[in-house]
Amino acid sequence: MKKIMVKDLTAEEKINLVWGKDFWHTNDLNGKLPYIRVTDASMGVRMPEDANSGVDKIRKSVAYPSIQVLANTWDLTIVKKYAECVASDCLDAGADIILGPGVNIKRSPLCGRNYEYFSEDPFFAGVMAKEYVCAVQNSGIGACVKHFCANNLEYNRQQQSSEIDERTLREVYYQPFRTACEAKPLSVMCSYNRINGVRGSENKKGFDILRNEYGFDGAVISDWGAVYDSANAVKAGCDLSMPYWDGCRDGLVEAYKSGELSESELDDCAQRVLDLIYSCIQLKADKKAVYSLDERIAFTREVTENGIVLLKNNGILPLNTKLKISMCGLYARPEATNFKQPGLVMGEGSGKVERITPMFDILTLLQKECDNTIEYETAFADEVLDGMKPYEAITNAARSDVNLVFAGTGTRIESEGHDRLTMKLPDAQVRTIIDTAKVNKNTVVVLFAGAAIDMREWIDKVAAVVYVGFPGECGGEAVVNVLTGKVNPSGKLTETFPLCYEDTPAAKGYADSVITRYDEGLDVGYKYYEANDKDVLFPFGYGLSYSEFVYSNPSVKKTGSLCVDILYDIRNVSKTDGKEVSQVYIHQCGSKVYRPYKELKGFSKNLIKAGDTVKVCVSLDKSAFEYWSNASDRWQIDDGIFEILIGSSSADIKLTTTVQIKNGKIVG
Q1: String of b and e for 592-603 (b: at least 16 CB within 10 Å)?
Q2: Nearest partner of 79 among 64, 63, 99, 97, judged by Cα
Q3: For 62-93, what is each residue's pLDDT tens digit?
Q4: How far apart are CA 501 and CA 110, in angstroms?
Q5: Over 397-464, what HEC string results?
């Protein structure tokens, strides 16, 4: 194929090229160029049946567990396969670029799109995103890492300004993009919001950092409708504005004719769009789906099984299947009752997918596993239809050995375009949990939610809590397998669960209708709670298992001037095979500048058979020890002693050792 260069285009064609043709496609200049097609992909491919329409009549596609569930696996092999499966869906659907992954930091637990993002921790989000981008692009589909930058809430997202100092931008909100750029994504999506007063689509300073410092050589694509001044966007380096609309294009024409927009500025963006088109074609050439449709659907169960987090367990789990079990809550049968609420187990907006298989029915699945009849009550019907009550849920709980309450949020509460109003579950659910727990001490709460939940009213009243998140096609099977012990839970939280919203930095910093000031600076998530000595409900990195693990024998092996391997043993002292996620944090003793007390810099997930010991190795390079110096405008490493903290969560440090840096090199 002969490639067309920007010099081969007229000014009008260049202007047309930097705007999309419609909602999903680049402009083919009336057949002069190939075009590429993009698609949403936060929980699977969200693409209309009619390729020329907007978001009406979405075609059926595999519904994957949300990115939040994927993150809770802490497993890069699963991330790789997840991205490969999504790429297979894109190839089947004729898409060239997926609009993801989302790497925005979970600064506030109320953000309506937290289920689409990896973590509150920038290191973790970046590592996960890098693996995802590598895998999806190796499978023939371009990635679009989003949303650059500091899109950490949905409220008034088109106007609000995220006010952030330079060091915090570098170390927290830019950092996941910096790491993801190591995988050479074909594109990055700009955010709706302003960054320090400048619109995301006009963030020239940020785009220059992406290109000149992070090695990004792809195209910047606007979020849909994020461009207000097309000339300023092009001048800043926003290459492709989506979707097409007449008004903004007309402004671009006028700016070019008046000389406000130079030919070289237009050429730069047009050339990058051309490069994007040809890169997609080259990437996709001769690529075929890696996995069959059946394999992809089956894989959704594996992701959820690895991403389910056991938050509390007094020993009632795994279930003794010979006991009599009662169940309540629409979330157990979201599509099997008269109320049919398929959106209960996924978020709304760009992450919502029209699933291929019917919504799961946990009642039926559990009946196959348990000896005694399971009593079921919808319980939360009054949230759907006014005036209805839980009816038999309390009576059923009183006459059963174990009571399961299936609760959560879903599309009515968690969505693109608006934030949650509260961290609490709806009142009907809270009442049902408390009332059934009063008559049955063995009450287990199974949560389908995309972000942290305030559990203060009921956490001490129940025997166990299982946090599922938003699962995919086979979510029901995954939940039942964990409840019955066929699968040993191994997921861990990638965001802190605070006691309540009022304890979060987002609740305390200055905010009005158009400005959000990030007063906490570097102290986001677990770093904030530790710096302010605040108790939390469940810490970052936390998750229980049916196994028990013991850590020992920490050591350090130097592998380069500023590279080390952190070695330690983990023994499974239980009678149950299990997977353990161990985490490596650093703390610089006596730092010259403020640094959070603890920063995640490595992790490992290992299968450890009952009675066995594994030796874990986590490698750290120079990036583990550096910080952004505002004084010198660069990444910097100061000499000193770095404490290495090895734990099962940010709050449960099992082992410590040290690394010394002297004259810019690791010694000893």
Answers
A1: eeebbebbbbbb
A2: 64
A3: 999 999 999 999 999 999 999 999 999 999 99
A4: 8
A5: HHCCCEEEEEEECCCCCCECCECCCCCECCHHHHHHHHHHHHHCCCEEEEEECCCCCECCCCHHHCCE
DSSP 3-state percent helix, strand, coil across the chain (nearest 5):
30, 25, 45
CATH code reported for the domain at 548-667: 2.60.40.10
Query: How far from the centroid of its chain's Cα atoms is residue 198's Cα?
Result: 25
**Catalytic-residue membership of 223:** yes
Would you kindly state where each structural domain of the chain is located, as residue ranges?
6-284, 297-492, 548-667
Buried b (16+ CB within 10 A) or exposed e, 172-186: bbbbbbbbbbbbbbb
The answer to whether 324 and 372 are in contact (CB under 8 A) is yes
What does the pLDDT read at residue 21? 93
Q: Do the beta carbons of residue 171 and residue 209 sit within 8 Å?
A: no
- pLDDT tens digit sequence for 50-65: 777 777 788 899 999 9
Encode burial over 243-263: b for 16+ CB neighbours within 10 A, e otherwise.
bbeeebbebbbebbeeeebee
6-284 and 548-667 share one fold:
no
Would you state the pLDDT for residue 526? Answer: 98
Catalytic residue among 40, 89, 96, 223: 223
pLDDT (0 to 100) of residue 378: 85
Neighbours of 371 (CB within 10 A): 11
Task: Tell me the whole-structure pTM to 2 decimals.
Answer: 0.97
How many Cα atoms within 13 Å fall on the side-chain side of residue 516? 25
Spans of the chain below 70 pLDDT: 1, 337-339, 381-390
pLDDT at 381: 67
CATH class label, 297-492: alpha beta
- The model's pLDDT over 335-385, given as tens digits with 9 standing for 90+, comes to 876 667 778 899 998 888 889 998 899 999 999 999 887 889 887 765 554
CATH code for the part of the protein at 6-284: 3.20.20.300
